[in-house]
């Protein structure tokens, strides 16, 4: 097996800074292999769904409670941005489904996220999803994540779905 070429540094980069960065990348496990148990289809979806508890469902409205567990925190201890986006997608789909007819499929066309502040481990968030607009071909939803204890807004999301009739062949 051929040995990989050594990495060369730009002269403007401090070697000490480069070494600290390399240790940081190694510490967070970027190059670690994923164990077979964790590479199964929908493994991460199951983790995220396990954090959510449905509170209320109404036409165009969905409210859930989200528990921040260590499994979905980032290197700094806050709720991982990918987990926030996954929850936003799930709640947005649930919201859209309350107003889009069952004979139509919905496809996520856009999901925009705003990360305003971090939710710490063991915090609880209230996740409120609502339909902003729903027409024949497009449905737009908004999702707000607020800390349950203080009501402080932590994250927001907006999703655009395309509604298409199911083909009858």
Radius of gyration: 20 Å
- Strand/helix succession: HHEEHEEEE
Kindly report how far apart the N and C termini lie. Answer: 54 Å
Total strands: the figure is 6
- What is the residue-averaged pLDDT? 85
Structural class: alpha+beta
Unreliable stretches, pLDDT < 50, 5 or more residues? none
Number of helices: 3
The helicity comes to 10-25%
Instruction: Report the principal-axis shape.
Output: globular
Strand order of the largest sheet: 1-2-4-5-6-3
Strand proportion, as a percent range, falls in 35-45%
User: Main beta sheet, described?
Assistant: 6 strands, antiparallel
Instruction: Identify the quaternary structure here.
Output: single chain
If you had to describe this structure to a student in words, what would you say it looks like?
With 169 residues, the chain is of the alpha+beta class. β1 and β2 (61-67) form a beta hairpin. The protein starts with 14 loop residues before the first helix and ends with a strand. The mean pLDDT is 85. The longest helix has 17 residues, at 81-97. It is built from 3 helices and 6 strands; from the N terminus they run ααββαββββ. It is globular, with a radius of gyration of 20 Å. Strands 1-2-4-5-6-3 form a 6-stranded antiparallel beta sheet.
Secondary structure topology:
Blueprint: H1 15-27, H2 43-51, E1 52-58, E2 61-67, H3 81-97, E3 104-115, E4 124-134, E5 138-147, E6 153-165
Task: Record keyword descriptors for this entry.
3 helices; 169 residues; six-stranded antiparallel beta sheet; alpha+beta
Short description:
The protein has 169 residues and is an alpha+beta fold. The protein has helices at residues 15-27, 43-51, 81-97, and strands spanning 52-58, 61-67, 104-115, 124-134, 138-147, 153-165.
């Amino acid at each position: 097996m051929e040995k990989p070429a050594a990495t060369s540094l730009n002269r403007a980069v401090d070697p000490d800074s480069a070494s600290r960065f390399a240790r940081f990348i190694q510490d967070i496990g970027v190059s670690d292999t994923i164990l077979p148990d964790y590479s199964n289809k929908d493994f991460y979806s199951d983790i995220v769904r396990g954090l959510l508890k449905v509170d209320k469902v109404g036409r165009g409205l969905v409210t859930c409670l989200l528990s921040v567990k260590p499994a979905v925190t980032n290197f700094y201890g806050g709720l991982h941005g990918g987990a926030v986006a996954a929850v936003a997608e799930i709640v947005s789909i649930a919201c859209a489904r309350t107003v889009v007819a069952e004979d139509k499929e919905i496809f996520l066309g856009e999901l925009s996220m705003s990360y305003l502040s971090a939710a710490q481990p063991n915090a609880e968030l209230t996740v409120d999803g609502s339909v902003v607009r729903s027409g024949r071909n497009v449905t737009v939803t908004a999702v707000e994540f607020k800390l349950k204890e203080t009501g402080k807004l932590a994250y927001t999301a907006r999703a655009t779905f395309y509604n298409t009739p199911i083909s009858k062949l």
